[in-house]
Structure formats: C-alpha cells, structure tokens
Amino acid sequence: MDRLRAMEVFVAVAEAGSLAGAAARLGLSAPTVTAQLQALEAHLRTTLLHRSTRSLRLTPEGEAFLPRAREILGAMEEAEAVAGGDAARGVLRIQVPIAVGHMVLAPALAAFAAAHPGLRVVTILGNEVDSLARRGIDVAIRMDEVETGDLVARPVYRSTHVVCAAPAFLARHGVPAHPGAIDPAQGLAWVADTGAPPRAWRFQRGVERVVVEPAGPLAFNSSDALLNAAAEGGGFCYVLGLLAHAHLRDGRLRAVLEEWETEAQVFYVAYPKARFTAPKVRAFADFAARAFPDHLRQAPASPIRIRRR
C-alpha cells in the first residue's frame, strides 16, 4: 500500500464529504477510492469513516487522524517544492468572502489558473472567520479580522464605503446634500443575521460626525443583494466602494455624499505562519495583490503578522 496516496485519498474524502466527490477530485474511480480507504484502515487497525448509502462521517479516530494526515501531506509537498524549485503546483485551497469572491476574484482566477498549469485551485466562498488549518485552507482573503493564532497577514487593499442609489430613484426623491437629509426609511440595510440590528452608516467631515440608522423595508446579509436591490430603485445602500465599482461604472447606481469620509475596510491575504511558505501560497498572495482594482488601491504592500480577532 502507498501510505501517502492512501492518506491523500482519506483527506480528499473527508473534505469532499463523499467517495464520489473525492474520486472526481483525484481523478480516480470510486472502487479505487474505496480500496485505498479500506487498505489504510486495515493498516491502522481502526475505522476512520462511518459510511452508508446516504451519509459519510468521520469517526473520533478519523477526526484525530485528519489534521496529522494533512500535516504529513503538507510536509511532502514542501519537500517536493524545495527539490523542484518555485513552480506552484498541487492543490491550493482558498477561502474568500462571498461578495469579494463573486465580484473581484472569480473573474480573475481563470487567468491565475492559466498562469499556473500545475495547480488546481479549490475556492470556498464564505464569510466565516475560523481556523484555516482546521478547515484545510491554505490561504484566505480576510476583511480586517483574522482569528487568533500565528498567521501571516499581508494587507493588499483598502476600501471605503459609498452611499449610492439608482439614477431614477434620485430623480424621484432628490440627491441628499447632507447625510442627515437621508430618510432612514429609504435606507436598505445590511444585517449579519435575522436577529442582528442593521449596520449603521457612519460619516465624518472635519469634526462633524453623522450616523444614519437605515430602516427601509429591505434588509440583506449580502452586499450583492443590497446593490441589486438599490439598482432596481429600492433605495439607498451603504456598501464598500470596491463592491459597488461595477454598478457605478455602468451607471446602474450613482454615488452621493462623496465629500464625506466613511468607514474603511482593509483586506488581507492570510495564511498560517510556517518555516516554509509553499510556492502556491506565494503565487496566490502575489496574484491577490494585483486582482483588486488599481484605481482604488490604498493598502501597504509589506507583509505583517497580526494576532487578533
């Protein structure tokens, strides 16, 4: 039995949640995947997975073995990278906030993949802030907050918020000259979940500070949805300029109150601190720094380490 290959199969099954998914990921047949798992379990003299026709879940032994197997496979990948030079290859697992993934990175990833033919990129879109290592994520895009732990966080972008609305909506209701002129009932809200209060809109000009509490008929936990609802004339929205860029460029939305300062968001490329940074992680970090729109770029380029939530 090739133990490394068997461990690779086990990790793929655990991450895919199914034998078929792992087989597709690895380019193997389902019977081969099953045989590799059975051989590994026989070698370890334990059951790693409970399998049925409808479900698959790790046993306690499988839960304990999974991170160790990932470490071993990572060490092997490191050794191959040292011997083989700086070529990015293997599987790169990245996590990206949902809106950023849709609007910024996904359109650019085809070019990244073409530039690195030896690399397979698995992208998980999600806003959860949890352990990268526990989820088997190699590198992530994070917005300000990085979970406690030893991570390298490279700032790649800084975006402020914009207030915008559809041109037809502004023609009907007027263009506000001051944040206080916005009717809260015309504000589309962003909420973290169904029980959370809407996020406030904060403005500053000199020493003057204004807070608007949106109270319109629509609230979303998605910036994509906010932008689309505003473009249909639903009201004002307060979103990151990075995310609103395409709507503003195409004329679907118009920015207002641009002379006022708003809250800023810093984006980081984050990856686990290690003695060796794999070429595939370095390649993605460099790509991400170029993927954000140049005309709004304000972030420093030097890597930093942060330990905070």
Radius of gyration: 23 Å
What is the residue-mean pLDDT, rounded to a whole number? 83
Beta-strand level of the residues, as a percent range? Answer: 15-25%
Task: Supply the number of helical segments.
Answer: 10
Give a verbal description of the structure.
This protein is α+β, with helices and mostly antiparallel strands. Among the domains are: 1-81, Winged helix-like DNA-binding domain superfamily/Winged helix DNA-binding domain (Arc Repressor Mutant, subunit A, Orthogonal Bundle), CATH 1.10.10; 158-264, D-Maltodextrin-Binding Protein, domain 2 (3-Layer(aba) Sandwich), CATH 3.40.190. The protein has helices at residues 3-16, 19-26, 30-44, 60-84, 98-115, 132-135, 167-173, 223-231, 241-249, 279-291, and strands at 49-51, 56-58, 90-96, 119-125, 139-143, 151-165, 189-190, 201-205, 208-212, 219-220, 237-240, 254-256, 261-262, 264-272, 304-306. Strands 3, 4, 5, 6, 11, 12, 14 and 15 form an eight-stranded mixed β-sheet that branches. A three-stranded antiparallel β-sheet has the order 9-8-13, with no helix packed on it. A two-stranded antiparallel sheet has the order 1-2. A hairpin with a 2-residue loop joins strand 8 (201-205) and strand 9 (208-212). The longest helix has 25 residues, at 60-84.
